[in-house]
From TrEMBL:
It is an enzyme of class 6 (ligase). Belongs to the class-II aminoacyl-tRNA synthetase family. Phe-tRNA synthetase alpha subunit type 1 subfamily. CDD domains: PheRS_alpha_core (cd00496). It catalyses: tRNA(Phe) + L-phenylalanine + ATP = L-phenylalanyl-tRNA(Phe) + AMP + diphosphate + H(+). The keyword Disulfide bond does not apply. It is found in: Cytoplasm. Tetramer of two alpha and two beta subunits. Residues 6-80 form a coiled coil. It comes from Nibribacter koreensis. This is Phenylalanine--tRNA ligase alpha subunit. PANTHER family: PHENYLALANINE--TRNA LIGASE, MITOCHONDRIAL, PHENYLALANYL-TRNA SYNTHETASE. GO terms for molecular function: ligase activity. HAMAP family: Phe_tRNA_synth_alpha1.
């Protein structure tokens, strides 16, 4: 009887399927544990005739070993394959989440547009340093020493001797170009400028300008007007009108401030142009002969015009942006509005 039981149990152990932890536990309880069926058979050895006990004992030990080995082997296999299934629960038929498109910063976009417009009429692009000396920011541009116009620029001074400062306008690049190149000169100089101003919706201590300079023989105020007319119509639309108001800059004579018709209300009057129909976009004039001479250009032979405008100002007018601070806050809700433009 006992031999038959051992044989039957051996078949059961071999046939038992262990595919998961629960089945592993059941196998252990059924066969291997101290209360399992193999242990029960060991208890029966004492009922067997003494001359058979040795053989029964051997066969039972073989069965016990078989069961233990199977338990150990399956346990190891299950542990190895028990890393969580990362793909479980994913639905591969769902459409993918689209990649968000990037946007160019509106100031970079405006600067590029301005450069492209002037490139078409033969202007190249020039740049100068943001840390400047007094000569390039003031003296060469005909600001007399101790002249109040120096105060008006709210300069960040860096050091006294040598006199270094953060440039307050891109007119510095005019000087650098004229010092190193011979006329004819047609150049556009975009760049960052700095002024010691409290930051608000309308003012910032750091902003961008571009400077235009044209030096050749017989350059006239008419050339200046035609050039700026062409520029504002390319940038703001063909129906844009331009107006020159007499003004003063130390480096130009005569000087003018440039207004254009408000392209929001087309000159009718709105809150952007404060009801006047016109908005100011920059300054311009004929390069003062003193400036030409300061830069080594013969003012008897050559004349020229210059202009300077704010890139923030133009961008705000173009896209009706009401607060300067938006340009530097890196708020993606603002920047995303320029996606794909
Ligand atoms: N540099 C002046 C400013 O920052 C702008 C300007 C006015 C530039 C007249 C010019 C010019 O070249 O001719 O306010």
């Amino acid at each position: 009887m006992l031999f038959e039981n051992i044989k039957r149990l051996t078949q059961e152990v071999e046939a038992f399927e262990i595919e998961n932890k629960e089945q592993l536990e059941a196998f252990k309880n059924t066969f291997v544990s101290r209360k399992g069926s193999i242990a029960a058979l060991f208890d029966e050895i004492k009922t067997v005739a003494p001359e058979l006990r040795k053989q029964v004992g051997q066969e039972l030990n073989q069965l016990k070993q078989l069961a233990q080995q199977k338990l150990d082997a399956r346990q190891e296999e299950l542990e190895q394959s028990s890393t969580p299934d990362v793909l479980a629960g994913l639905d591969f038929t769902l459409p993918p989440v689209p990649n968000a498109l990037g946007a160019r910063h509106p100031l970079a976009r405006t600067r590029e547009q301005i450069i492209r417009i002037f490139e078409r009429i033969g202007f190249n692009v020039s740049e100068g340093p943001e840390m400047e000396d007094d000569w390039h920011n003031f003296s060469a541009l005909n600001f007399p020493d101790n002249h109040p116009a120096r105060d008006m620029q709210d300069t960040f001074f860096l050091s006294k001797n040598p006199d270094m400062l953060l440039r307050t306008h891109t007119s510095t690049v005019q000087v650098r170009v004229m010092e190193h190149q011979k006329p004819p000169i047609r150049t556009l100089s975009p760049g960052r400028v700095f002024r010691n101003e409290a930051i608000s919706a309308r003012a910032h201590c750091m902003f961008h300008q571009f400077e235009g300079l044209y030096i050749d023989r017989n350059v006239s105020f008419k050339d200046l007007k035609d050039t700026l007319y062409y520029f504002v119509q390319e940038l703001f639309g063909q129906d844009t009108k331009i107006r020159f108001r007499p003004s003063f800059f130390p480096f130009t004579e005569p000087s003018a401030e440039i207004d254009i018709t408000c392209h929001i209300c087309k000159g009718k009057g709105c809150n952007i142009c404060k009801g006047s129909g016109w908005v100011e976009i920059g300054g311009a004039g004929m390069v003062d002969p003193n400036v030409l001479e300061n830069c080594g250009i013969d003012s008897q032979e050559f004349s020229g015009f210059a202009f300077g405008m704010g890139i923030e100002r133009i961008t705000m007018l173009k896209y009706q942006i009401k607060d300067l601070r938006l340009f530097t806050e890196n708020d993606v809700r603002f920047l995303r509005q320029f996606t794909g433009m």
